[in-house]
Amino acid sequence: MDSYDIFLVAPPGLEHLVAAEARDCGFQGVTQVPGGVNVTGPLADVVRANRELRGPARVLLRIASFRAMHLAQLDKRSRKVDWASIIPQGSALHVEASCRKSKIYHNKAAAQRVATAASEAIAGTVDADAVIRLKVRIEDDMVTISIDTSGDALHKRGHKGAMGKAPIRENLAALCLRACDFRPDEPLVDPMCGSGTFPIEAAELAAGVIPGRSRGFAFDHLALDVDPVPPVPPIAATTRFFGFDRDQGAVKSAADNAAQAGVADWTRFACQPLSDLTPPTPQPGLIMINPPYGGRIGNKKQLYGLYGAFGQIVKDRFAGWRVGMVTSEPSLAKATGLDWADPVGPFPNGGIRVTLYRSECL
Ligand SMILES: C[S@@+](CC[C@H](N)C(=O)[O-])C[C@H]1O[C@@H](n2cnc3c(N)ncnc32)[C@H](O)[C@@H]1O
């Protein structure tokens, strides 16, 4: 069986967590590089990576790599690629290129050469809105051509209707849970849950459902043998993933999103201010929180009090629980008065650099 190079695009700063997830899911040849993780495997692994991994932002399949010193050589070598083995006849495609430290320096000209070679080989068309998208990287005169097999970024699980004010991306939430050693058999509480991303990701892990079970992917349009998503035997749900928020609209959206994701029975959402927070289960677990930060919503100065109150409440009421907190400012993390060990990041979330702070058991 042919083995391919598959690249898992990772949030910068969280590559190690994506690598750990890939290893846990049985992918081979896992190596971490800045911006992602390389794995090797058959084409079926492209499908599996897209459907089953929670951390990557997207999955690229390498289809060619060769040296080219000038555009005529790029054109000639691109025409030797077996495009038809991956891209169905008559498809529309789009190519983007980036050149670094190379004799070929013109991104658009490079993209155009590859686009012409590929589209002619499959009697297709070139279209900026095409679902099939090729990425050409030219670095030190080495050309690498990959195909984006994901389409929409993978944080879009396909279940979320309502978004809330400043949601954390699902793949970042999943990686934060991993970084906090979350175990699906322990409870989780998000006291400021917004659209419910943390409890829903936690519930999906407990329910044993894969993140890409109901969305479409770019690979649906490629010449790949794709098996249907296998049904999962249902696991009896126990409600142990909780989300609270003072905003009734956020709570409703979180509950709707959990229902759409099929994990309503695992989760409970309620309108409640932070000041009323108490442990919802006798068994301790993980508190995951992504409070407002100044850059995006709220005024930073007023937030110090909120962070301080959060730290005091969990110290007073949540003995035995661990805390994971995502925020943008070290000073806000410090204002909680909690002992943070070994922060993870910073990593970008919606254009803002955030860090995950983690506590030991309180
Ligand atoms: C950054 S958003 C959380 C986003 C969430 N992680 C998601 O993925 O959608 C912060 C949330 O904190 C809530 N919040 C702010 N102050 C609060 C308080 N005192 N008590 C409860 N919730 C609060 C806001 O309503 C908002 O939904």
Model description:
The chain is of the alpha/beta class. The chain folds into 2 domains: 4-148, VC0802-like; 170-358, Rossmann fold, CATH 3.40.50.150. 28% of the residues lie in helices and 25% in strands. The chain is built from 9 helices and 15 strands. The protein has helices at 15-24, 43-52, 71-78, 107-121, 170-179, 197-207, 248-260, 300-317, 330-335; strands at residues 4-9, 28-33, 36-41, 58-67, 92-100, 125-126, 132-139, 142-148, 188-190, 241-245, 267-271, 286-289, 322-327, 344-349, 352-358. The strands form 2 sheets. An 8-stranded mixed β-sheet has the order 2-3-1-4-8-7-5-6. Helix 3 runs parallel beside helix 4. The protein is elongated and about 70 Å long.
Brief overview, please?
The chain is of the alpha/beta class and 362 residues long. Helix content is 28%, strand content 25%. The longest helix is centred in the last third of the chain and has 18 residues.
Task: Give keywords.
single chain, 362 residues, alpha/beta, VC0802-like, Rossmann fold, seven-stranded mixed β-sheet, 9 helices, 15 strands, 28% helix, elongated, binds S-adenosylmethionine
Question: How is the topology of this model organized?
Answer:
Layout: E1 4-9, H1 15-24, E2 28-33, E3 36-41, H2 43-52, E4 58-67, H3 71-78, E5 92-100, H4 107-121, E6 125-126, E7 132-139, E8 142-148, H5 170-179, E9 188-190, H6 197-207, E10 241-245, H7 248-260, E11 267-271, E12 286-289, H8 300-317, E13 322-327, H9 330-335, E14 344-349, E15 352-358
Parallel strand pairs: 5-6, 5-7, 9-10, 9-12, 10-11, 12-13
Antiparallel strand pairs: 1-3, 1-4, 2-3, 4-8, 7-8, 13-15, 14-15
This protein binds S-adenosylmethionine.
S-adenosylmethionine binds at residues 164-168, 192-195, 197, 245-247, 250, 273-274, 290-292, 306.
